[in-house]
Amino acid sequence: MKNFDRVADIYDATREMPGFVFDRMVDRVVAATRATAETRFLEIGVGTGRIALPFLERGYQFAGVDISERMMDRLRAKVGGRNLPVTLVRADITQLPFEDASFDVVLGVHILHLVSDWQRAVREARRVLAPTGYLLLGYENSPPDAPSNELRRQWQTFVREAGIPLSGRSGNWDAIQADLIEGGSYAAVYRVAQWEEAVVPRTVLEEQRNRVFSQTWEVPDDVLETVSARMGVWATDRYGSLDTVLRSESEFLITVHRFRAESE
Q: How far apart are CA 114 and CA 67, in angstroms?
């Protein structure tokens, strides 16, 4: 699992979603899990608290784990002196420091693709989950032809052409869902929210060059500079200008898993 200490200070600004998405997410999670004031939540990969904070502000008991202390420090700063019911622990999500059946809901958003042994992380999530509990996995999605996806794929192509074998995503979304269902879960998928966002090629290229996203961390400085120059030429030819404002549809999805009893 990659440690995000290096981007803790810019993480929120570079992974923005509209505010209403978070409100709808909490509403959907609460409804799907029948959460009450006594419900015990755990978020694996809690990071800066983008997902956790809306739950905390509604008074839910929330624990979070992450391997990045600096990311959790950002959440601590957001909480400030408010008396919010949060427990934060630095830990690897493949070795959770909790007893069996400690939580009613385990939540992971955009995290398992960063974990090489995601199967073990899923087993740990199930271990700490109460028998009647829920495992929820969420992620932001956009169409394959969305400008941000197109720019990322072209960047990956140039990097590989330079001889750098990118590691790619660890946990494929479809493979994770299939593994959970095969392991005995009942699953329901919810489209929590949809929205349109603006994508400016220059901004995306600057994020690539400044190593904002984890895959860029694997690329040597000299290769990154060469690829950045090639991307500037390619994007100008593709979109007419690096400052062209492109529009793209995005959505936030949550899959809710509940597991059959062993006797079923």
A: 12
Picking from 54, 16, 50, the residue whose alpha carbon sits closest to that of residue 35 is: 54
Q: Tell me whether residue 115 is exposed, middle or buried, using C-beta atoms within 10 angstroms of its C-beta: 0 to 12, 13 to 18, 19 or more.
A: buried
Single-letter amino acid code for the residue at 199: V
Summarised one tens digit per residue, pLDDT across range 132-176 is: 999 999 999 999 999 999 999 999 999 999 999 987 666 678 888
Q: Which CATH superfamily is domain 5-259 in?
A: Vaccinia Virus protein VP39 (3.40.50.150)
Which residue, among 159, 151, 161, has the nearest Cα to 234 in the 3D structure?
151
**Which run of H or E residues covers position 78?**
helix 69-79
Six-digit token string for 206 = 């600057």
Among the listed residues 19, 43, 250, the one whose alpha carbon sits nearest the alpha carbon of residue 148: 250
Kindly report the pTM of this predicted structure: 0.91
Rounded to whole angstroms, how far apart are CA atoms 158 and 9? 28
